[in-house]
Amino acid sequence: MRENVFSLGLRMALITLAGSLLVTSSWAASARVLHNFDSSGTDGFNPEDNLIFDAAGNLYGTTSAGGKYHVGTVFELTPQTGGNWSEKILHSFIENGKDGNFPLDNLIFDTAGNLYGTTWAGGTHNLGTIFELTPQAGGGWIESVLHSFGADGKDGNTPYAGLTFDAAGNLYGTTSAGGAYNLGTVFQLAPKAGGTWTERVLYHFKMNGQDGVDPEANLIFDAAGNLYGTTDHGGANDSGTVFELTLGAGGRWTEKVLHSFGSGKDGILPQAGVIFDTTGNLYGATFFGGDHGYGTAFELTPQAGGGWTEIVLHSFNDNGEDGYNPYASLVFGASGNLYGTTSAGGTNGFGTVFELTPQAGGNWTEKVLYDFVDNGKSGYEPYSALIFDGVGNLYCTTYGGGSHGGGTVSELTP
Fold first, then answer.
1. Which of 80, 98, 311, 406 could form a disulfide with 84, with the two C-beta atoms 3.0–4.6 Å apart?
2. Which pTM value belongs to this model?
3. Is it true that domain 8-413 has CATH number 2.130.10.10?
């Protein structure tokens, strides 16, 4: 990784978008388990993160537990002849006072093929890390801790979210705690000559009745270089926010709360980040709230005179059929359809994959594409977002279930 870093994750996003165009506007899915995580050995288990592809079609992710030292892993899944996939553990985190422990969110690539991620614990101060994994010429991967959080009273700590690159190769992310008010931060990690990295806190969240607190989701950039994210608490109703950070003169970033959740039948407690459509609207999900109290999918639309207007696209319902408590971010598919997962609900009560389709007049209809089931084979409780491959199949992880009970990587085929 080094100069002119531009995230391979962005390249894969373009591949993903191309693949999504192959998905029909309404479909039902069949699921196939690609890997069963095993908590009894050195395999990782309980994955909570999103998966990513490399250019060769291999899948990468993390598990929040397990591995040789029982504090999490980074893994690779490689497709084999005949349709099977083989797993390889690239790194088992070590509880040694230096390495990170318990990775909870997705990895990203740079253009040289190095992987980057966060852990919510471990490191020098046991308050989380940013790490890099570098592939070696003869095989294997070497891990480096780029930053240990908690070095002073104003650094952030316990990052739950993954990272985002800018075009200059700087990394951006959030911490759920720490900072000047101990309510979370937005940070930048910049590469320096000699392979070192320097961290800078761009924003300290504060409890003032308006600002959000406890950010736990990934950030995204718009075309102008502004950052967007969510907090799962704080705001005018202490039910979470969507915020924007804008870079100003002198390198100072200014925060603006675009929406405070929790008014009336609005969603509350967004756990996931937001995504853009092609016209600049933002979309996301909340874990609770809505008409039935079980979460929502929402849209935020910028207004000509400033400000943003929120619309609830769907209120999830505990009615024995619909999924509920969506934990992960949404993804766009063909013709502007949205796809996502719920961590619970559905016919079997163990989570769903759903599709939201826009209708004339501005309404959206929801369809459950797949119901997870606790049958000793299928995974259940998907906390991860979905990703597309180049032919329109969807992939996700499940926190539990599978033949060994430690969670799965699953493929859903239309």
1. 80
2. 0.92
3. yes
